[in-house]
Amino acid sequence: MKEQTDRVSRREMNSHSDSRLLSWIAKGHRWLVFARRVRVLAEMLSALLPENASVLDIGCGDGTVGALIAGSRPDVRVQGIEVKPRSGCRIPCREFDGTNLPFTDGSFDVCMFVDVLHHTSDVKALLREAVRVSRSFILLKDHLRENARDGATLRLMDWVGNRPHGVRLTYNYQSREEWSEHFAACGLKEQSWSSDVPLYQAPASWIVGRRLHLIALLRK
Q1: CATH of span 2-219
Q2: Mind listing the pLDDT tens digit for each residue in 29-59?
């Protein structure tokens, strides 16, 4: 009985230590990375949105990027959707099952993904849903994996940025060729594409930059 109690106690201690470690990782990430990342993303994404657009931010997280876009583009209306909506989300947000978007066809001018599709097991499934719900455009920020080194770096980045928040990690990164295949299969044409996304300052950019990021505007 005492041995069982000791094992339970050790598990509780380990769980507490893990939670404390993840909390420190989350605080460090927010202090070192988060502010610049969301600012750069909001600037680059808002520049690609058409005038007076209605935008669905799919997998909006805490809504920071969407809120920054709305703040710099008063003509744009941003609404979020999330599997587990966070309390205090900075944009209007509703829940969905991660696969089916609860909107009728053509409900929004633009559907936006910011580092979401690599968390899915089937990139095309959710992309097709976004195409259905969008009237005109898909705006995409995600990752590029062309080799094993890219994959290892992206996995580390993903774990640090998302594990403390309980985000599902599938590490489903795509190459340039694979992205092109997905777009074609979903009836999308590239209107713009850039892998020059300066989210990090040197020297961090030499490791976790390296054109591992993409922003693409896609037209139906």
Answers
A1: 3.40.50.150
A2: 444 456 888 999 999 999 999 999 999 999 9
Place of tokens 């993303």: 41
193 and 211 in contact (C-beta within 8 Å)? no
Look at residue 22 in the predicted model and tell me its pLDDT.
40
Spatial separation of the C-alpha atoms in residues 2 and 175, rounded to whole Å: 54
Output the DSSP codes for 136-195: EEEEEEEEB--SHHHHHHHHHHHHHHHGGGT-------B-HHHHHHHHHHTT-EEEEEE-
CA atoms within 13 A on the CB side of 83: 12
Q: How many residues does the chain have?
A: 220
DSSP calls for the chain: -HHHHHHHHHHHHHHHHHHHHHHHHHHHHIIIIIHHHHHHHHHHHHTTSPTT-EEEEET-TTSHHHHHHHHH-TT-EEEEEESSPPTT-SS-EEE--SS--SS-TT-EEEEEEES-GGGSS-HHHHHHHHHHHEEEEEEEEEEB--SHHHHHHHHHHHHHHHGGGT-------B-HHHHHHHHHHTT-EEEEEE-----S-TTHHHHHTTT-EEEEEEE-
